[in-house]
Design goal:
The complex is a heterodimer. In chain A, 45% of the residues lie in helices and 14% in strands. Chain A has helices spanning 7-23, 35-50, 69-81, 90-103, 106-117, 232-237, 243-247, 251-268, 274-302, 310-333, 349-357, 367-378; strands spanning 123-126, 142-146, 149-160, 167-173, 184-190, 196-201, 210-221, 225-226. By secondary structure, chain B is mostly helical. Chain B has helices at 7-23, 26-34, 40-48, 67-79, 86-100, 106-110, 154-185, 197-211, 214-225, 231-257, 268-280, 285-296; strands at 125-127, 133-134, 143-145, 187-188, 191-192. In chain B, a hairpin with an 8-residue loop joins strand 2 and strand 3 (143-145). Chain B is globular and about 65 Å long. Classes of the chains: A alpha+beta, B mainly alpha.
Chain lengths: 387, 310
């Protein structure tokens, strides 16, 4: 496909730009990892929803605009270019949403997508367990069927947003005695259901961005299960409709960081090392390369294709790019790197950015796992001997 | 911008890949290396495929294709470590001559009778030139002293850098393939070494570098074809990432091959040496880095999320 932005796409870009300019909060919001900042970000989600910008690619009937992926990329470019806040509901809109669209019943779509797009229900993910991190198939938390309910018992951990969110989704073992990838089901649950205990965990920056979840005879309606019983692993790993691999991190976010880094470099040029200079140049190059690649993937999906294990290449690339950019900023800042606020009163966003960037190569499947997937599924290297 | 490369372009590249795989395998490289390093039959085959006329305008007897098509074919030349100056002649000289309006001999290039190669001051020598020969590390590359009338034209430089970037992508892909194949057959500790994560992760890094080098090269080809004011910036970006990826691929591949990789017996060395040659040709790493630096840090180029295609 040839892409010269069409007049309609250019008009759309202008519309997004105008709305954002009029609606973005005057002052930066507090961090979404803390309670006050979380609610500020929820308010921003609702503001987006009022403008019908909650999730532009979703069908109109569920609160979207029915736009295509190129239009989504245009939206994201404007969003990050304008310096708009992080999306506190990203677990919902980027991860769960596309899964519900693909696997949900009509009733589930109406029940879950509409409030998600409206910014009314914030979502937490519940994949990992103390004994199931990189080895996610080692999940032990059970969901035993009891009439038209499941009864959940066990423990999840590193549940992003679970300290303050409304609902969660994750994989649970619904077949007693089943092993590994079999017998798992994908279940959505209200975090306020009796028997759910949340224990917030302080992250590196000190805020409770994720939580442990304890389940003690938690009764969840069976209609909260997505797709068939025992099909959870395939739902979680689905390679069809792989907008998830595309959408988790849009390039605009990294292009915006690269631009800020260039500006920071100019201010610190006299004291910068030659290596920092090249790292800054590299930041622009890599964020651009990531954007080109994302447009190519979007075009491929629009042409009826899909992405599978290539999503692993993306994840390795953006997470290590983000860490490198923020590290370079820390190095450029020198002694000021440790300050939470600079002497002129501005918040040191680079410190938060660097801390957050350290989680990128770990979450959503560690980069070691992504390299295994790349080697085994894209390069067809042998799976024997995990040592 | 064409993000998803059009199927007809890929069909042509696939046909060339199939042809070259069948006629220009590693055994041919070994034979050429042992015996005079050029074989007229290879060039004749490329002419029969119509490749010298790929970018020659149709009214001069060529196919009149775009630089993106040319870059896709340069990549295929890299994949087989082609021992003929197809890239230099058909994909660098032709678009340069055409852009300068020097069209008199384009028809002769399309028929394969005339085979000019570029002499640019930035290289300091000429590959497949007529001057006194110079020794180089690549046994299948014929270097000659630079003629006194060598060009310093910036468009020629950009075309050379673009097409060598595309060729470097193909070289790196081939080296990755060779390392993967070797890792499946070489056994140690009772299993193929490709089962070890230390090997997997090393080659996965090459796959990542290539995945994010390819679209940069395709983008640069289109920017140069469209005459974008920023075309040189995108060409430099392409040359940098392709050269870096090919060094990484070469070093990773030789490491995976172990001591075998350090021999002249394993074919990998042909690809690696070509990658060294092209990595430095058409502007050093420093040259291209300075061009990107000047545009990005210097402020001449608009950057940020809304400027993806500036």
């Amino acid at each position: 496909m040839d892409l010269v932005y069409t007049p309609a796409q250019q008009a759309f870009r202008a519309e997004v730009r105008e709305w954002l300019a009029a609606n973005i909060p005057d002052r930066p919001l507090r961090t979404l990892e803390g309670e006050a900042g979380f609610h500020e970000h929820v308010a921003w989600e609702r503001r987006l929803a009022e403008g019908n910008w909650g999730m532009v690619t979703w069908p109109e009937e569920y609160g979207g605009r029915g736009l295509d992926l190129i239009e989504w990329l245009i939206f994201e470019e404007e969003y990050w270019g304008a310096g708009a806040p992080l999306r506190v509901n990203q677990n919902g809109i980027f991860l769960l949403g596309p899964t519900v669209i693909e696997y949900g019943t009509d009733e589930q779509k109406a029940r879950f997508l509409t409030p998600m797009a409206a910014g009314e229900v914030m979502w937490a993910q519940a994949w990992s367990e103390p004994g199931a991190g990189s080895d996610m198939a080692a999940i032990k938390t059970t969901a035993r069927r009891d009439g038209d309910h499941y009864v959940i018992n066990g423990q999840k951990t590193w549940s992003s947003r679970a300290s303050f969110a409304d609902w969660g989704f994750g994989l649970f073992r619904t077949e007693e005695g089943s092993q590994r990838h079999k017998g798992l089901s994908f279940i959505l649950f209200d975090l306020d259901t009796p028997g759910v205990t949340r224990r917030p965990i302080r992250q590196l920056h000190g805020e409770p961005g994720f939580a442990e979840l304890f389940f003690d005879d938690v009764r969840v309606p069976a209609c909260n299960r997505l797709a068939g019983e025992g099909e959870g692993w395939n739902v979680a790993m689905a390679t069809a409709g792989f907008e998830r691999g595309l959408m988790l991190r849009s390039p605009g976010r990294f292009q915006a960081t690269a631009k800020r880094l260039v500006e920071l470099f100019r201010a610190h040029e006299a004291d910068a090392s030659p290596a920092a200079r090249e790292a800054v140049t590299r930041a622009w190059m890599d964020s651009q390369a990531y954007a080109y690649n994302t447009y190519a993937v979007a075009a491929k999906i629009m042409a009826g294709g899909s992405i599978g294990a290539e999503a692993s290449l993306n994840k390795i690339f953006w997470s290590e790019l983000d860490r490198a950019m923020n590290r370079t900023a820390m190095q450029l800042l020198g002694a000021a790197a440790e300050l939470k606020q600079f002497t002129d009163g501005r918040t040191n966003d680079w410190l938060d950015g660097y801390i957050f960037s350290l989680s990128g190569p770990i979450y959503a499947g560690s980069n070691e796992i992504q390299r295994n997937i790349t080697a085994e599924r894209l390069l067809d290297m042998p799976r024997v001997g995990k040592g | 911008m064409e993000f998803l490369i059009a199927p007809e372009r890929l069909e042509l590249a696939d046909a060339v890949r199939t042809y070259l795989a069948g006629t220009h395998g590693a055994e041919v490289l070994r034979r050429l290396d042992a015996d005079g390093n050029r074989d007229p039959a290879i060039w004749a085959g490329l002419v029969e495929m119509g490749l010298p006329g790929l970018l020659v305008p149709e009214d001069h007897g060529g196919l009149g294709l775009r630089l993106l098509d040319g870059a896709l074919i340069a990549r295929e030349a890299g994949r087989v470590c082609l021992a003929e100056p197809l890239v230099d002649s058909a994909l660098v000289m032709v678009p340069w001559l055409a852009a300068r309006g020097e069209t008199e001999r384009l028809a002769a290039i399309a028929t394969g009778e005339y085979r000019p190669t570029p002499a640019h001051a930035i290289n300091g020598w000429q590959a497949d030139g007529d001057g006194p020969s110079m020794a180089g590390v690549d046994p299948l590359r014929n270097l000659a002293a630079l003629p006194a009338d060598a060009s310093d034209d910036p468009l020629l430089l950009d075309l050379g850098a673009l097409m060598s970037a595309a060729e470097l992508v193909g070289l790196a892909e081939a080296m990755l393939d060779q390392a993967v194949e070797y890792s499946k057959i070489r056994e140690q500790f009772g299993q193929p070494i490709g089962g070890f994560q230390a090997i997997k992760h090393k080659l996965a890094d090459v796959a990542v570098a290539l995945e994010f080098a390819r679209p940069v090269v395709w983008r640069a080809a289109q920017a140069l074809d469209d005459g974008l004011a920023s075309a040189s910036l995108h060409v430099s970006h392409a040359k940098l990432v392709a050269a870096d990826a090919s060094y990484l691929a070469g070093e990773s591949a030789i490491q995976v091959h172990g001591a075998m990789g350090y021999t002249y017996e394993v074919d990998l060395h042909f690809w690696m040496k070509r990658a060294w040659a092209l990595g430095g040709a058409w502007g050093s790493r420093g040259f291209h880095m300075r061009r990107v630096d000047a545009a990005v840090i210097g402020g001449g180029h608009a950057i940020g999320p809304e400027q993806t295609f500036a």
